[in-house]
Amino acid sequence: MRGQLSMGKTLIVGISGSSGVLLGIKLLEFLWGINYETHLIITSPAESIIPYETEYEVEYVKKLATKTYDNSDLFAPIASGSFRTDAMVVIPCTMKTLGGIASGYSDNLLLRSADVCLKERRRLILVARETPLSLIHIENMAKVTRAGAVVLPPVLSFYSKPKKVEDMVNYIIGKVLDVLEIENKLYERWKGD
Ligand SMILES: Cc1cc2nc3c(=O)[nH]c(=O)nc-3n(C[C@H](O)[C@H](O)[C@H](O)COP(=O)(O)O)c2cc1C
After folding, report:
1. In the chain, where does DSSP find H-type helix?
2. CB of 71 closer than 6 A to ligand 1?
3. Is pTM beyond 0.90 here?
4. How many CB atoms are closer than 10 A to CB 151?
5. Predicted confidence (pLDDT) per residue in 43-88, tens digit
6. How far is CA 167 from its chain centroid?
7. Residue 189 and which of 28, 77, 170, 178 are 20 to 30 A apart at CA?
8. Pocket-testing residue among 15, 16, 18, ligand 1, by greatest number of atoms within 8 A of Cβ
């Protein structure tokens, strides 16, 4: 099977229902391209936003992952800390999902998997997308950061002189991959003057 234990590394990818679902799709395409093992959960709102905001179909996105789970499937292997994974990325991450992770309210597979990552001290990256932010959002970000997560908002960058939306998307994906220590050349690194 494509991606199966290829690099001895396993990544859980969660796509939740915020604007910017394209970020999750582009991350999966990159990982598919390097044959990386991925376990995917797409929330129900994200399944509606994918065809609304992008040119992709949900079925195409699911096929990019090594394995895809239903978000209600709390019997899935990734719901348990005994199943070995290395890290998880929620990309994009809604304020609702952020709130669920911050409060430990694990009533779906995405939230449970993130909870497991934190309790097992595994890397958890949240590409939290909302603007402007309320104090509740900011406090939830502080809470998950204290618990060990990395909050990585999809913030625009201009020093690399982007010309297309694709350049901006690649910059965010590159930053996520950097935190995961996955080699990439998706954006121009700052070399100094
Ligand atoms: C088109 C669209 C765009 C949305 N964008 C955002 C967003 O950028 N950030 C956010 O926190 N919620 C956003 N929402 C609201 C979430 O989809 C909603 O809170 C949902 O309950 C999140 O559930 P989930 O986290 O399980 O996917 C958006 C909803 C729609 C329909």
Report:
1. 21-33, 44-53, 58-63, 95-103, 109-119, 135-146, 165-179
2. no
3. yes
4. 17
5. 999 999 999 999 999 999 999 999 999 999 999 999 999 999 999 9
6. 18
7. 28
8. 18
